[in-house]
UniProtKB/TrEMBL annotation:
Keyword Membrane set for record: yes
Membrane topology summary: Multi-pass membrane protein
Keywords, ordered alphabetically: Cell membrane, Membrane, Transmembrane, Transmembrane helix
Superkingdom of this protein's organism: Bacteria
Lineage of the species this protein comes from: Bacteria, Bacillati, Actinomycetota, Actinomycetes, Kitasatosporales
Protein name: DUF3817 domain-containing protein
Organism: Kitasatospora cystarginea
Length: 121
């Protein structure tokens, strides 16, 4: 395999993990903000919370779809079983779960990204 090509492939694999991690954090932060907005709106009766909750809810909804696509891409490339993939996909719907799942996924996938490509026969 050509050395320059190997660097490009490894860079592409790293970018898959980086995109997933970025969207995991974005999704997690928005979900926490949405949870706080819902608490402020319904439990505390704060008047300005309705607009905030709507805006954050819309943003989380659309960006969660991007998270799903990127997590699915990472999971298929890492050849995860369907149960594990489902858990990673659902983590974006449980406040704070996505942070723990992202950390575990990153620890597991990072060595695979750093591993050299097997030589083609």
């Amino acid at each position: 395999m050509h050395p320059k090509r190997a660097v490009t492939l490894d860079g592409m694999k790293q970018s898959v993990l980086t995109r997933y991690r970025t969207m995991a954090y974005v999704t997690g932060v928005l979900l926490i903000l949405l949870t706080l907005g819902v608490i402020a709106k319904y439990a505390l009766g704060i008047s300005g919370a309705a607009g905030f909750t709507t805006a954050v809810g819309i943003a989380h909804g659309w960006l969660y779809v991007v998270y799903l696509v990127l997590a699915f891409d990472l999971g298929t490339k890492a050849k995860w079983p369907i149960g594990r993939l489902a858990w990673v996909l659902l983590a974006g719907t449980i406040p704070t779960a996505v942070f723990f799942v992202e950390r575990r996924v990153s620890r597991e996938v990072a060595p695979l990204v750093a591993a050299p490509e097997p030589a083609s026969a």
